[in-house]
Amino acid sequence: MVLSADAIRDYLPYYLTEEAKVGVINELKKFHLGEMHYYLFNRYEQEMLQGDGWTRLHLRNFATGEKIFINGVVLSNTCDVDPSNKRDLPVSIIFAPLIPLEAFIGRLLSAGLAGASIDNKISAMRRQEVTNVFYMPAGGGLDAEHIVLLDDIHSMPAKVYRGETSKGKIFTLSQAGFYLFILKLSMHFCRFHENLIRS
Questions:
Q1: What is the pLDDT, as a whole number, of residue 88?
Q2: How many domains does the chain have?
Q3: How do residues 136-158 score in pLDDT, each as one tens digit?
Q4: Range of 149's domain?
């Protein structure tokens, strides 16, 4: 499924004014023109928000069981990870690793993909056309291009992460960046039109 700016109007929140919808759609169209570079910024340094980039998230290596620390992007909704939202049971932070685009290209080369095929894949990611990949240009706390693979998700106890003294926020998404992020989450995980009759 390809994500295009013209196809997302029905996915935008109902509470947005028409002017706000047009503004978000116009920002998303800029990806296709290679113009959108300002959807990451440094604000809300202490709050954890959905779509934030953070350092020192804990991840277990599936093959070895070793605990490693990574940079990642929070997939959990903001309310779930808000410490002021008292819960009866402990909450986990759901996140995906933040991967440098160059490292991902290296993985594709190691897998034997041809250069032209890799170029086409990366171009589509940069235009935000791939629904299971969230692309982030350099800037706003990132020194290089990065991606988030939405099918590589992990979790850790929120209480443990709050106690991590050396953690830090890398970036917060702007409004347009946040809408694009949740659109991609919705389209990747929730396909109402899966073309399968389940009855």
A1: 86
A2: 1
A3: 888 888 889 999 999 999 999 99
A4: 5-189
Give the DSSP letter of residue 2: B
Backbone angles phi, psi at 178, to 5 degrees: -65, -45
Q: What does 70-98 look like in DSSP terms, one character per residue?
A: EEEEE-S-HHHH-TTS--SS--EEEEEEE
pLDDT, residue 155, reads 94
Say what the pTM is: 0.81
CATH number for the domain including 135? Answer: 2.30.30.110
Q: Would 45 be classed as within a structural domain?
A: yes
On the question of pLDDT at 101 being above 70, the answer is yes
Q: DSSP characters for 8-65?
A: -GGGS-TTS-HHHHHHHHHHHHHHHHT----SEE---SSS--TT-EEEEEEEE-TTT-
Using CB atoms within 10 A of its CB, is residue 190 exposed (0-12), middle (13-18) or buried (19+)?
exposed
160's tokens: 């443990």
Asked whether 12 and 179 are in contact (CB, 8 A), the reply is: yes
49 within domain boundaries: yes
Residue 199 belongs to some domain of the structure: no
Model pLDDT for residues 47-76, shown as the tens digit of each residue: 888 999 999 999 988 888 899 999 999 999
Q: How far apart are CA 95 and CA 155, in angstroms?
A: 6
CB atoms within 10 A of CB 180: 25
Query: Positive or negative CA dihedral for 183, 186, 188, 190?
Result: negative
